[in-house]
Write a structure and sequence with these properties.
60s Ribosomal Protein L30, Chain: A; 23% helix; alpha+beta
Length: 128
């Protein structure tokens, strides 16, 4: 990969809760750190059900993409972690409604726990 390394930090997504960047852009690629359903203003997990958490995590990912001048159509790969894999179909419906016609490669895995007690985490790679 050639190109300058640029850290992306936007106010519309939660600040990093550890020693990492919201995203790093190198050349035409954007590597987005995992987004959980934290409210960007408070830094706290959003109140609400599973659907609310999924939408917030997607909104956070969208904000990071926008900070790099991109959107969901630029996604090439999304990794999804779900605490309750039994909610896969519910997740899929929300994901599809938010991403529209974008169809990046994707992996969905079940995990035992996520930071801050989140139900979902989204990590992605996008390209210009």
């Amino acid at each position: 990969m050639s190109g300058e390394r640029k850290e992306i930090s936007v106010a519309g997504a939660p600040r990093a809760i550890g020693p990492y960047s919201q995203a790093v852009e190198v050349g035409d690629l954007l590597f987005c750190s995992g987004q959980i359903p934290l409210d960007p203003a408070s830094g706290e997990l959003v109140d609400g059900d599973f659907a609310c958490q999924v939408r917030r995590a997607l909104d956070n990912l969208g904000a990071v993409l926008a900070g790099a001048g991109m959107d969901f159509t630029n996604l090439v790969k999304v990794n999804v972690s779900l605490v309750e894999l039994s909610r896969f179909e519910e997740f899929n419906a929300i994901y599809e409604s938010c991403l529209g016609d974008a169809r990046p490669a994707r992996a969905v895995v079940g995990v035992s726990t996520l930071p801050r007690g989140a139900a979902v985490e989204l990590e992605a790679v996008a390209s210009r």
